Structures are given as C-alpha cells and as structure tokens.
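pls design
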C-alpha cells in the first residue's frame, strides 16, 4: 500500500522539491501552504505522516499541531530553520514526533520518514498490555491509563514510557533510551531525552519534586517504579 505524506510549507519551491523527491521514492504526496489548508487536507487526504514547516502565515506549525492533536496521532516531523532549544521543546510539548533542521540532505529526511513510519506500524506489534502499579499501557490501542483515567501521550512519549515499563524496577541507561530513539527515527541526544522524561513526569506525577513513577538514577539513567 502506498504511504501518504502531507507537506506543509508556505514556500512554493520547497513544496515542489519535497513533493518531487518523495514522489520519486514511491510516496503519494500532497502539499499545503499553511496550517488552515493543512487541516482540511488531513480530513480529505488522510496522510500517514506530516512534514511540517514551523514559520508560516495564517496558522503556523505550532498552532496546526495543537489543532491536530485534539483528535489525531498522525506522526509529525517538524522542519525548521530555528535551532534554539526552546523552539524544539515547544514542538515536542505540543505533540511533534521528531524534527529536522534546515538545510538538510534529502536522504537524511528519507531515513527519518521511513523510521517514523516503521515505528508507527510496529506499535501494534509490540507487547499489547503492560501493567505496573496503577499505570496501564496498551500498545495495541496506543492507550495509557493511570487509575483507569486516560493519559494523553505523544507517540514519542509513549515509546519512552513503554521501554521504561518493560523494565520496571530496573535502571534503563540513558544511552539505551537515546539509541532506541535513534533507531526509531528520532533525535537521540540526551537533551532531547530529558525533554520527554520531563513531559512524561508532568503528565503522570502529582508532585514533580518527589516523582513516584520515573526515578532518575544520577549518572546512569531512569527507573520506572510502581508508585506508592
């Protein structure tokens, strides 16, 4: 089955370049010039993945992700010329799955796209149900619950939590988590990992100063605990 990619960028030359290249790689591609147009395309085109420029008129990339994540987990790769950590953090907080900085090589982008699509397809093939304390993770439904109350996670946050819960009570080294992110097409830096650990804690923990679920083992990595 041909995979569909939606390219969202307000620069016509970039649209043509990406559409031509991805089309030559066997993808079905459609383009939108801003967030509003992209939201309409999502309903009609039903893409498997979205390449999203951040700085656009009318509705920028951040606003688009906010609207998209209300009812969709379609993977999103941010394409941005902005390299400040705050911009990356904001994108991840809103639900982006990965990012790539302009200028980039087409082959690098292709590798990231294929890896993100593989990861999305593999989620349903993973161990379907994990239960640790009052946290339940169902990979077949992309569902996480705390005391039977749903917790909304991005696909990347879900990936990190799943790895920690699979090794509950044991330390998972930072290097192992970073490598898993890389293998699934995401940025594998420790700074990026810390962002997602922080986001998970904000969604799971009642007191960030005294985490019950995700413990930092200084100098080594993280351990998932049952809570108390």
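designed seq:
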């Amino acid at each position: 089955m041909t995979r569909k990619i939606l390219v969202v960028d307000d620069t016509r030359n970039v649209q043509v370049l990406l559409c031509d290249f991805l089309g030559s790689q066997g993808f079905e591609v459609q383009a939108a010039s801003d967030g509003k147009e992209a939201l309409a395309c999502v309903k009609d085109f039903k893409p498997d993945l979205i390449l999203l420029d951040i700085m656009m008129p009318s509705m920028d990339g951040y606003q688009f992700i906010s609207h998209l994540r209300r009812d969709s987990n379609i993977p999103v790769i941010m394409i941005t010329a902005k390299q400040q950590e705050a911009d990356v953090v904001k994108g991840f907080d809103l639900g982006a799955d990965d990012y790539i900085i302009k200028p980039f090589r087409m082959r690098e982008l292709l590798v990231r796209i294929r890896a993100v699509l593989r990861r999305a397809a593999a989620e349903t093939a993973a161990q379907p149900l994990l239960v640790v304390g009052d946290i339940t993770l169902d990979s077949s439904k992309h569902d996480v619950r705390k005391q039977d109350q749903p917790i909304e996670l991005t696909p990347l946050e879900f990936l990190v939590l799943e790895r920690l819960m699979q090794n509950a009570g044991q330390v998972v080294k930072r290097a192992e988590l970073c490598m898993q992110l890389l293998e699934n097409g995401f940025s594998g830096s420790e700074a990026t990992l810390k962002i997602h650990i922080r986001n998970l804690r904000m969604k799971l923990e009642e007191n960030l100063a005294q985490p019950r679920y995700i413990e930092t083992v200084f100098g080594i990595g993280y351990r998932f605990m049952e809570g108390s």
